[in-house]
Design brief:
With 317 residues, this protein is of the alpha+beta class. It has six helices and eleven strands. Strands 5-6-8-7-9-2-1-10 form an eight-stranded antiparallel sheet, sandwiched between helices. A three-stranded antiparallel sheet has the order 4-3-11. The C terminus is likely disordered.
Length: 317
């Protein structure tokens, strides 16, 4: 009897431990009052729509993330991300200017999701080659910003210096992800939609390698460039605030609670997104989008396999 009681107790303890480890963080685990280091000047606002399969409603649906980009601390990372967010046409043959393909983040996959860690996406030439607007790879910029809060937008590299391309990741740990500091360049921050990231995208079904059971993809992106009359001066002022913060002056820090300005800018992007998704020319049911993801990806890859050796230039349209 003692052995049976011990085994039952051991099983119960293991189940409890498993339940704790398996628990994904939620938006309630995020301390929105915690003071973090001040943000650099914001050069762009970006809205990212993500289409995923909602198992509770048994259909594909779209959720949105809104992020600020920091072009004064990571100008190359931001330039690359913005160009791919807007999308452009790649010329396949100079003798045939009409022979082009669309290249960008739209319809690219969120190909790995690691709960209580990060989501990974941005592979615009899946299975073919790394890509950036600067070439296959581009160099690291200073590891200026830290992964000290959830919602950090960072470059995904290959684990070695200067191996950045189109791939990115977004962190989800409520307490931050310092293990990525000085290894990956932070160039943005989620300012609205962190709840969508933690409550929805994080909870889609995945396999042991973090690959979603049903495709998760970027459905649309909207970029709003911020006019900054004197970027150098704004950056200098930011560095002064950062120095004060590092000396213990928390009054110059920032919290994750959106400011009135951020909420206004986010509302403008949401209005633009609503108009885009409901325009007769672009209004397509989410269910159809989900069904077409695999087909579109295969067709895209087939085109590239035929023409990849002929790519000579790209242009923004």
């Amino acid at each position: 009897m003692l052995l049976i009681s011990f085994l039952i107790h051991l099983l119960f303890t293991l189940l409890q431990c498993y339940a704790v480890e398996d628990k994904h963080p939620t938006i309630r685990d995020v301390d929105f009052r915690k003071i973090h280091s001040p943000d650099p000047p914001v050069t762009h606002h970006v809205l990212m729509g993500i289409v995923y399969y909602d198992s509770t409603e048994s259909k594909y649906t779209v959720t949105e993330l809104i992020m600020d980009l920091y072009g004064t601390t990571a100008p190359y990372a931001v330039e690359n991300f913005v160009a791919l967010a807007r999308g452009f046409k790649v010329s396949m043959d100079p003798k045939s200017p009409q022979d082009t393909i669309d290249l960008g983040y739209k319809r690219s996959l969120i190909d790995r999701i690691f709960p209580n860690d990060r989501i990974i996406g941005g592979d615009v030439l899946p299975g073919l080659a790394p890509y950036s607007v600067f070439g296959p790879n581009f160099a690291d910029e200073p590891f200026f910003l830290k992964h000290d809060r959830p919602g950090r937008l960072s470059l995904l590299n290959k684990g070695e210096p200067d191996s950045n391309d189109s791939n990115f990741f977004i962190t989800m740990k409520p307490e931050g992800s310092p293990e990525y500091d000085d290894k990956h360049v932070v160039f943005g921050q989620i300012i609205m939609g962190l709840d969508n990231l933690l409550e929805r995208i994080q909870n889609v079904k995945i396999n042991d390698e973090g690959v979603p059971a049903k495709k998760v993809a970027i459905s649309h992106m909207i970029v709003d460039e911020v006019e900054i009359p004197d970027k150098d001066e704004k950056h200098r002022e930011y560095l002064e605030r950062l120095a004060k913060f590092n000396e213990g002056d928390l009054s110059v820090g920032t919290a994750l609670v959106p400011t009135a300005t951020q909420m206004r800018d986010a509302k403008n992007l949401e209005d633009e997104s609503f108009a885009l998704l409901n325009h007769p020319a672009t209004s397509v049911s989410i269910g159809i989008i989900g069904l077409l993801l695999c087909y579109a990806l295969m067709k895209f890859r087939r085109q590239l396999l035929i023409h990849s050796k002929k790519i000579v230039s790209f242009r923004n349209d």
